[in-house]
């Protein structure tokens, strides 16, 4: 199987800047706390195994073709389920879904694994990945490329199906807390 590398191999970083040290991980995390981001639950299914995680590292890449990128820590179960299935669903949470966000973020310590899907109502769209009802939007996707980025995999996805609602508050994460933003 031939793989096309779509990286600019003729581009080189600025040598002066490349020689400079980066900030510490803690400084980076502290700065990122001030970056208000939407909250999503990324879900996947491989056979009978379902997995999911709360994520803020989701980004639209292009509208034509419809592509998103999702960053998932390599150490979470969902990472392996996504790799095995080649599919995922991005569930963009509404303000009233904070409890589900906390469950999938591991903030409710007594709820683990598949028991997390006991929170909220779930269905499938096209890919077989669980899609949460009541979200602001669902993006059901196939993974087309996987990039190895240090502690995370970047999953480049094409959108196969969407659902959305036109009411409700958005759930965001800012300064270490979930917050609601009205329409």
Architecture overview:
The chain has 183 residues and is α+β, with helices and mostly antiparallel strands. It has a single domain (15-181), classed as Electron Transport, Fmn-binding Protein, Chain A (Pnp Oxidase, Chain A), CATH 2.30.110.10. The chain is built from 4 helices and 12 strands; from the N terminus they run ααβββββαβαββββββ. The strands form 3 sheets. Strands 3-2-6-9-10-5-4 form a 7-stranded antiparallel sheet, sandwiched between helices. A hairpin with a 5-residue loop joins strand 7 and strand 8. The chain starts with 14 loop residues before the first helix and ends with a strand. 26% of the residues are buried.
CATH topology: Pnp Oxidase, Chain A
Rounded to the nearest angstrom, the distance between the terminal CA atoms is 47 Å
Average pLDDT reading = 95
What are the low-pLDDT stretches, counting only 5+ consecutive residues below 50? none
Derived from helix and strand composition plus strand pairing, the structural class reads alpha+beta
Count of individual beta strands = 12
The level of helicity is 10-25%
Largest sheet: 7 strands, antiparallel
Identify the CATH class: Mainly Beta
């Amino acid at each position: 199987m031939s793989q096309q590398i779509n990286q600019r191999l003729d581009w080189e970083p600025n040598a002066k800047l490349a020689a400079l040290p980066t900030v510490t991980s803690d400084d980076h995390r502290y700065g990122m706390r001030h970056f208000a981001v939407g909250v999503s639950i990324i879900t996947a299914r491989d056979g009978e195994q379902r997995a999911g995680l709360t994520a803020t590292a989701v980004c639209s890449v292009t509208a034509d073709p419809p592509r998103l990128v999702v960053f998932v820590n390599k150490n979470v179960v969902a990472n392996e389920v996504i790799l095995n299935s080649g599919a995922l669903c991005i569930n963009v949470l509404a303000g009233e879904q904070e409890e589900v966000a906390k469950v999938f973020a591991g903030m409710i310590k007594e709820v683990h694994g598949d028991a997390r899907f006991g929170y909220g109502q779930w269905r499938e769209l096209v890919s077989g990945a669980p899609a949460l009802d009541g979200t602001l939007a669902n993006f059901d996707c196939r993974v087309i490329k996987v990039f190895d980025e240090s502690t995370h995999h970047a999953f480049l996805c094409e959108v196969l199906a969407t659902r959305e609602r036109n009411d409700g508050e958005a759930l965001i994460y800012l300064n270490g807390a979930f917050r609601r933003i009205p329409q």
